[in-house]
Amino acid sequence: MSHVQPLSAFTTLRLGGPADAVVECTRTAALIDTVTSLDRAGTPVLLIGGGSNLVIGDDGFAGTAVVVATEGIEFGSDDAGPYVTAQAGTDWDTLVAATIDAGFGGLECLSGIPGAAGTTPVQNVGAYGVEISDLLREVRLLDRATGDVRWVRPEELALAYRTSNLKGRDDHVVLAVSLRLNVDGVSAPIAYRELARRIGVQEGATTSASQVRAMVLELRRGKGMVLDPDDHDTWSAGSFFTNPIVADDAIDRVLERIAAAVGDAPIPRFPADGGSKLSAGWLIERAGFTRGYPNEDAAARLSTKHTLALTNRGAATTADLLALAATVRDGVLERFGVDLHPEPVFVNCSLPR
Predict the structure, then answer these.
(1) How far apart are CA 97 and CA 77, in angstroms?
(2) pLDDT digits (tens, 9 = 90+) for 133-190
(3) pLDDT for residue 2 is more than 50
(4) Which long-range contacts (CB under 8 A, 24 or more apart) does 221-228 make?
(5) Which of 14, 67, 272, 311 is deepest in the core (most CB within 10 A)?
C-alpha cells in the first residue's frame, strides 16, 4: 500500500508516521457512515480526536485514519439542573470557555487542556482536583460491532483515575458527551491547594468560575501545558506518566526507600482508591531528571517548565521520545522502586523494557 499522509500533523507531539489514507469527518452522520463502511470493508481504522494523548509510531498506521472533527455545543436542563452537550470533535477548551461565557460553572478547572471533547471520558481527564467523572452526565456511543448508537450513563464506563472501560479498545466510538454544570457561574469546589492559594480562597470553597479559569490558564501556561506552536515545551502529550498509586500494604516500604534516597524532604502523598497516590513529577525530579533533561541539543527532552511532560524539540522521532520515556521510567524504578505508567495511547509503538 502507498502511504500518503503523515499523522504527525494530527498529534500535539507532532510525531507519527504516515497512514494509507486520512478521512476527516465534520458531521456525526458522516463519522458513523465512514467508520461503518471501513469496518465492513475490513480496513483497519485509527480514530483521532484532538491528538493530545496519542503517540504514533514512526512507521505510521497501515489503514485509514479517521479524524473526528465534528463540532457543536448545546445547552439544556433537566430535573438535576443545567448541562451542556458537545459533539465529539469539539475543541475541549472552546467548550469550557463557552460554558463560562453562558454563565455556568463546573468545568473551569479543566481549562486549557488540549484535545477534543470526545476523548475526555476515555481518559477520565482531570486537573486541579476535578475529573470528568465528577461532571459526566452521558456519553453517546457507536457500537462498531452492531452499528447501534445509544447514550450511556457514567456508571457503565468504569471511570477511574485516568482511565475508563473505553480506554485501550476500539470497539466503540464516542460521538458526543454531556456534562453537568453549575448555575450562576459558580465554580466547582477548589480542591487543589496551589490553585486555592493563588486565588485566595480556602480549599473546598467555591468562587467565580471565570476567575478560576483565568488562574488555571495562568498556571498551565507557566508549566508549558497550554498549546503554543512557537513553544516546543508544548509539543507534548501533556503529563506523560500518571501519578503512581501504591497499595496500602506496600506504601510504608516505598516511603522508607524514598526517604532513604532523598532525606527528610516531605514526600507528596494523597489518598486514592486502593492505596496512596504519589507525585510522578516529584519522583522524576528527585531521581535526577531535571527540567530540560538530557540537554539542550537533544531532539526529545523533558520540558524546561515541567518534568512530567516529554517534548519534541522539532526534529525528534517517536523512537527518540520513547527512549527518553524508558530512561525516566527506569531511573525512577531503580532509585525508588516505583514503576511509572504512561498515560498516552500508543499506536504501532511501545515503551521499551
Answers:
(1) 19
(2) 999 999 999 999 999 999 999 999 999 999 999 998 899 999 999 999 999 999 999 9
(3) no
(4) 221/112, 222/305, 223/303, 223/305, 223/306, 223/309, 224/303, 224/304, 224/305, 224/306, 224/309, 224/311, 225/112, 225/113, 225/306, 225/309, 226/112, 226/114, 227/12, 227/114
(5) 311
